[in-house]
Amino acid sequence: MFKKIVDKFRFSNGAGDYSIPLVRLDVMPENTPDDLKYLYEHSVVDDGLDYIGHPDAFLTKDGAIIDFYPSGHGKGAVRSKISYDRGVTYPDSIKDMPESWETSRETPTVYRLEFADGTPDKILLISGNPDWHDGKGSIGGFNFSLSDDEGKTWSEFELCFSKKDDVTVIPTVAMASLTRLKENGKFVDKWMAFFHNASFVNYKTILSFENGKPVWSNPEPYFAKYRKIEKNAKMCEVEVVRSECGKGDELCLIARSNNKRYNSLLSFSNDEGKTWSKPVFSPSAINGERHKADYTPDGRLFITFRSIERSKEKIEKYSVEHMKTWFSEGWIAWVGTYDDLKNGTEGQYRIKLEHTYLKNQTEPALSANADTGYCGNVVFDDGLIVTSTYGSFGQKKSDGEYKTYVVSKRLKLSDVDKLVK
Q1: Are 73 and 53 in contact (CB under 8 A)?
Q2: Cys staple from 262: which of 13, 125, 305, 381, with CB 3.0 to 4.6 Å?
């Protein structure tokens, strides 16, 4: 009886299997047409250390992709790589990066800022200062740098909301998401940014510019009304998607449930993030961690994440590490529509982008190493998606264990559609 009660708790809160197709791009079938073989290839972005993780990326106006990531697991000096050929090769890095980036304490996130008043675009890079409990403590707050020339040069880190300031936060994954705001139905030069703290209180802060200088509003909890589920699920690392291909008036929040005993959470706002609807559990097809969402030219959503599988039957069948409440399929992308998010439907299909090897695996399998899925994604006007993440993709260290490094994949949904059965 006790086991049944425990299992009911473990495998409730949205748990179950997905029913949409899974397209596997980690193993190329025989007789694959030549024009689709590129889907099964990956490019190495950076394998220069034994462990490199957690990339983000942006697309320059001249078509280059610039990836940023830390020199380690979630922290370490910021590294960069540049691709000039749409993600095929990554030959260069940013020259003369700011000295302050050497002491970055978290995974960098990067966003493009577009202005309504004709100001040239800026590129924003942010790195938080969490307490890693490594004896170094935390100065608090978050650092940010700006580029006015499409990422060629950058300002030194500027620190906000540190322990020396009147308002202090100790953030994790700053900023997990950044969304341009509207006023009276029109976009304005304000951006809502999201992070959480070690107690899984989720905050927002608004970025604006006064006389050309960046100003961040005092961070404030935005999910206090639903604190019980926020705390129980250990809600964090939210992605925010705007309706109507990024032009609509509704926002959808997709949140990681870090305790793995809840599916990801979905919540909606129709007042530019001032209030949010009561959260609901996501369909299992999109359950996971560190969601990154982009619209494609045909209006569909391409959302990458770290898979978290909570179906009891699948765990018993596929979990090679004997996990009791979850396992991972690794680096996954979900393809669907905003209406799928709104209506709680499963979407069109999932993609296993590449296999991340568990310790004793020698061949790709459904069960994968979960240390992956933080992504930098860019979408070209012709529909080509280049997605980058980190993981154990097969290279080994001198001790025979798998290295963790950054790779990218190139795909068009019109090509992936041909593989859906």
Answers
A1: yes
A2: 13
What's the rounded Cα separation, in Å, for the pair 378 and 161?
Answer: 30
Residues 146, 124: contact at Cβ < 8 Å? yes
Q: Is the pLDDT of residue 37 over 90?
A: yes
SS3 37: helix
Would the CA dihedral through 194, 197, 200, 205 be positive or negative?
negative
Q: What is the Cα–Cα distance from 133 to 50, expressed in whole angstroms? A: 22
Edge to edge, the sheet with strand 265-269 lists 235-242, 251-257, 265-269, 280-281
- Give the mean model confidence (pLDDT) for residues 53-70: 98
Residue spans of alpha helices (H) in 192-303: 227-233, 243-246
pTM over 0.70: yes
Strands 158-162 and 172-183: unpaired
Task: Decide: 142 and 119 in contact? Cβ < 8 Å.
Answer: no
Distance CA 319, CA 305 (A): 19
What is the biggest distance separating any 2 CA atoms in the chain, rounded to whole angstroms?
66
Residue-wise pLDDT tens digits, 185-229: 999 999 999 999 999 999 999 999 999 999 999 999 999 999 999
What was the pLDDT predicted at 318? Answer: 87
pLDDT at 336: 98
